[in-house]
Amino acid sequence: MFDGLTAETLARIQFAFTVSFHIIFPAFSIGLASYLAVLNALWLRTRDDSYYTLFEYWKKIFAVAFGMGVVSGIVMSYQFGTNWSVFSDKTGPVLGPLMAYEVLSAFFLEAGFLGIMLFGRARVGDRLHMFATGMVAFGTLMSATWILSVNSWMQTPAGYGINDVGQFVPEDWWQIVFNPSFPYRLLHMVLAAFLTTALVVGGVGGLHLLRDKADVCARRMFSMAMWMLVLVAPIQIFAGDMHGLNTLEHQPIKVMAMEGHYDSHPDGAPLILFGWPNSETKTVDYAIEIPKLSSLILKHDLNAPLDGLDTIPDEDEPPVAIVFWSFRIMVGLGFAMLGLGTWSLWRRLRGHLYEDRLLQRASIAMGPMGFVAVLAGWITTEVGRQPFTVYGLLRTSDSLAPVSAPAVAASLTAFVIVYFFIFGAGTFYILRMMSKATLTRSHDLQDGLQDGPVRAAGITPAQQVAPTITNDPNPRGN
Hints:
- The chain is mostly helical and about 475 residues long.
- It has 17 helices and six strands.
- The protein has helices at about 5-45, 50-80, 85-120, 120-125, 125-155, 175, 180-210, 215-250, 250-260, 295-300, 320-350, 355-365, 370-385, 405-435, 440-450, 455, 460-465, and strands at about 160, 170, 270-280, 285-290, 390, 395.
């Protein structure tokens, strides 16, 4: 199946395969943990039982996604010692402590409070349960902070020295952690996680509204998801632009590949909307472009010169076609999210947010697109860094362990089989949970609240079953 491929190529494929599976679960759990914290806080503040019902509904989905993310992350990390031991040896003094900080300060935090969030409301009370929920959300954000600091250092290394045996050694931890691309990458990724979760929640809400437009819990989650799109999508587009300018400053070759600029443009570069990068002729075939717009976007000047890939050696050139298309997929989906949010705002202002079945179908179609955008963004980032693992300093070919191609091919085959079986089953289970309706009938809600907030708050079940569960609290969809 992998005949003719080198050990380096197979190891890169294996890492790309495992990290692609892994990233979709943290991207979802980061946003979902914060959403659960918001739902729990809203229930404590308002005692509106629809918030409690949604919290119970989504916490089960979060638990499964969190577990799958942990498992996939552990498997991925082992490859640093098996396939990339030279990379681990050379960068270990810098990256090892950062990975340890992630485990000690973030993963232990979220894992330690996870049990209380999932099972402890009746035992610890509402206040401590809310604190635990907040700590889980904070832990996911801290975890993302440390991991993105590691990745950002590989993209824009700073604060290091090199010892006599060729290892990177720390000289200034502040510069290492807060390296030049870290703030932009962190903001871009966290916003991407929030948008990914909003699209999933909106898709699930749209599905249940198509089944029953009077479902109050479905209305709640659909409305909250659409508000998130309206507010966050424009911020994400702006943050992405700032991140692109930072990349132009520190990783100009990556931007050349993203833009498809094989040639330099001394008097203004065009924005190539679509085309087919041709690595043999060093051109973009069938290009559809807007003159000078790339210079305007990147340099804020129509006539600003931009260097092309013709200014660098061929051996330093990343795979242009992959970076070119993954970047366009990411940007295109970002504007699609903005479009969906704008559409929902227009329908909300007209009082038809919950009656627009076309909007609900569009939200279902867009449900998985956050994951696609995250994957496209990571492909742009990681493939655009090639042929380096530490940008400009350590080549990928020099980072490989002394492993044979057949050995890597065997492990890659095993990964493909096991991953599709286990994570395919887990994903199917999550989708099954999402397809189940939330509790909307009064007797179901009463049963669901007996063991939780009834005991914690000292309120009888009859008091808990609020009229808002069976009546639309906001008939105009505002």
